[in-house]
Structure formats: structure tokens, C-alpha cells
Design goal:
Elements lengths: L1 H18 L3 H25 L4 H39 L3
Length: 93
């Protein structure tokens, strides 16, 4: 029971920490997390294959997927910061 309460308390703290992030950062983090999970699944498949060449190709695919996810998250972050700059520059016009 104590463990359940500790985990519930930890979940509350994590959710409060997420509230302080901007919506753009939350979206970018979600993209990165989802793609990283997919890459982890590909790595798991690679570890279950006995063919070393196929496992290596899957591992390379997982690395490329992680890179693409990072780039996509950066694009979302950049778009959000650009939108914020435009809004702040047009106030009072």
C-alpha cells in the first residue's frame, strides 16, 4: 500500500512538472518519446534475431529513427519559438 501511495505521489509531481512546460515543449517531448519508444521496439526485435546482418540493419534503422525523432522535435520547438517571437514583435503595432 505504501508503494502505491508513493507511486501516486510521484505521478502527481511529474504531472505538475509538465504543467510548467510550454505547449510547444510538451508536443516536442511527446514526439521524441513516442519515436524513441518505437526505436526501442526495433532494438528489441534486433536482439531477438539470430542473423547478425539483419540485427545490424534493424539497429541502424532504430538509430535513424531516433535521429529523425530528435529532428522532428527540434523542428516543433523551433516553430514554437518563431511563433512566440512573431507574437512578441507584433504587440503594440
Amino acid at each position: 500500500m505504501k508503494t502505491v501511495l508513493k507511486l501516486a505521489g510521484l505521478a502527481c509531481l511529474v504531472s505538475l512538472g509538465a504543467c510548467s512546460k510550454s505547449p510547444t515543449e510538451n508536443n516536442a517531448a511527446a514526439i521524441e518519446s513516442n519515436i524513441d519508444n518505437a526505436a526501442d521496439n526495433i532494438d528489441a526485435m534486433a536482439s531477438n534475431i539470430s542473423n547478425d546482418q539483419a540485427a545490424g540493419q534493424l539497429t541502424n534503422s532504430a538509430d535513424q529513427l531516433r535521429d529523425a525523432g530528435s529532428n522532428a522535435a527540434d523542428t516543433v520547438r523551433d516553430a514554437g519559438s518563431t511563433a512566440n517571437n512573431v507574437e512578441s514583435n507584433t504587440v503594440g503595432m
